[in-house]
Specification:
44% of the residues lie in helices and 10% in strands. Strand 4 and strand 5 form a beta hairpin. It binds 7,8-dihydrobiopterin and fe (iii) ion (FE). Fe (iii) ion (FE) binds next to helix 5.
Length: 282
């Protein structure tokens, strides 16, 4: 989950019990039956819904990692499978970590996943990324070699963006792709790859089928000029033609882009520019 939680004030250190890189032991054996039961409930709700809504790399990833629905996965076990496929591993954290820590993990093919799981009475929305959002939502896509490269490139780009004071622009790229991205599937049908959508029962339907939100063809500069909201269904989605296109975006000259962006105002989420490729509502 990408959040606007600004790290105000002096940089804080890792929480008690965490390592210098903010990771903790997952302590898989400490999960209670109730906690495992929440995972099962969330998994069963989503897996059926996503069969014809999530993109093939996501569905293939669920199978490749054997992320079946019988309980909270053991990060060591799924990391060994994931490592063999794309060199990524899943590391446990208590919750949000500072941007520079987050980027360093991504740049080294480590995905930081919250170890806690939401309560049974907050199945539909939570403030911080829990293990279901992170592991069910984000991790399956990391089995795709192209997306795996994109996420590492994003981490490297994040480290650079911080030095250039461009974090807010780069956070929008993460938000409109990794968290809430749509893509063209076989035959041109819209498919979901964003973790914030696949981990949400409501948004998995809304993002593809509701006439209210706009859906625009992906354009890097447009994405970086467009703010987002963190606590409601999105009013705008960007559609990529392929994951390859997304990866190629990261190989562009961001310095030139950042210079151009300095002179351009933000674009409101609800606006449609003449240069936008508006995709017809389903
Ligand atoms: N920390 N654990 C965790 N998970 C995230 O998704 C995350 C984070 N810290 C910062 C962050 N995301 C966003 O600000 C990214 O855009 C960097
Ligand atoms: Fe996320």
């Amino acid at each position: 989950m990408s959040v606007a939680a600004e790290q105000h004030g002096a940089p804080v250190g890792p929480p008690p019990g965490a390592a210098a890189d903010w990771t903790v032991d997952q302590r898989w054996s400490a999960y209670t039956p109730d906690e495992h039961a929440v995972w099962v409930r969330l998994y069963e709700r989503q897996a059926a819904l996503l069969e014809d809504r999530a993109c093939a790399p996501f569905l293939n990833g669920l199978k490749a990692l054997d992320l079946h629905g019988d309980g909270i996965p053991d990060f060591e076990r799924i990391s060994d499978k994931l490592d063999a496929l794309t060199g990524w591993r899943v590391v446990a954290v208590e919750g949000l970590v500072p941007d520079d820590v987050f980027f360093d993990h991504l740049a080294n093919r480590r995905f930081p996943a919250g170890r806690f799981i939401r309560g049974r009475h907050q199945l539909d929305y939570l403030q911080e990324p829990d293990v279901f959002h992170d592991v069910f939502g984000h991790v399956p896509m990391l089995t795709d070699p192209v997306f795996a490269d994109y996420m590492q490139a994003y981490g490297q780009g994040g480290q650079r963006a911080q030095g250039l004071g461009q974090m807010h622009h780069l956070a929008r790229l993460y938000w409109y792709t990794v968290e809430f991205g749509l893509m063209r599937g076989p035959g041109g049908a819209l498919r979901i790859y964003g973790a914030g959508i696949v981990s949400s029962r409501t948004e998995s339907v809304y993002a593809l089928e509701h006439p209210a939100p706009h859906r625009l063809g992906f354009d890097l500069e447009r994405v970086m000029r467009t703010p987002y909201k963190i606590d409601d269904l999105q009013s705008l989605y960007f559609v990529i033609p392929s994951l390859q296109t997304l990866l190629e975006v990261t190989q562009r000259d961001f310095a030139g882009l950042y210079t151009r962006l300095r002179g351009l105002p933000d674009v409101a989420m609800e606006a449609i520019l003449p240069t936008d490729e508006l995709i017809a509502a389903p």
